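Table 4 source record.
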Amino acid sequence: MFEKSDQLWTMALEYAPKLLLAILTLIIGLWIVKMITKGIAKLMDKNELDPTLKPFIVSMLSILLKIMLFIAVVGMIGVQMTSFIAILGAAGLAVGMALSGTLQNFAGGVMILIFKPFKVGDLLEAQGYLGVVKEIQLFNTILLSLDNKTIIIPNGGLSTGSMINYSTQSTRRVDMTFGIGYSDDIDKAKGILEGLLANHPKVLKDPVHFIAVSELADSSVNFTVRAWVNAADYWEVFFYMQETVKKEFDKNDIGIPFPQRDIHVYNH
């Protein structure tokens, strides 16, 4: 009886300091984790990080730090953590493989929200789709196509693939090609194109527009026409020129050639 009491007392004396130190470490560690997560949250607020991303980063960081603290505290008590860590690692690997696509999309969403290659409202062409960015989520980006269809693109491929953002620059260049017949007056046609661009209020004066004969094609003499406009005016100027050039060429007896084929029949 006394031997058992002595053993218990010895164990108490041996483990009590470790237990007290572990409890103290846990309390202080939780306080430090709380301070770190608060500091990270303030830093993200200062850098104006996307509000969708902030709670997830803070939560994940807090969980990771608490797991590390728990392992350290249990190890201080004397519990062997080698097997536990091995099991935890194996479980994490299995979950990671099962959710590889989801994790890839999540990582892509995080990268998009941090580096901001585009924002809500931008006209984006990516993954074979063209549309206006409606919403940036952690796993998907939602586009609204020009004919009002909803397009959902996973962030994994979107963050690693090529994309064209038509909204990053305030101005755009409208590139057009117009052809006339070989018998038509080049200077006259060029003057008509020059007048249409010079008189259009949405065509910018600087940079100056460009008009030149660019090709002597099979059935036409082709003009390359380049005009700078504000990004929002791109399609208005493009469609205006397509319609008005045809009308003005018709008024001035300038033909716009179309492909023709002459067939010669020989009787033997």
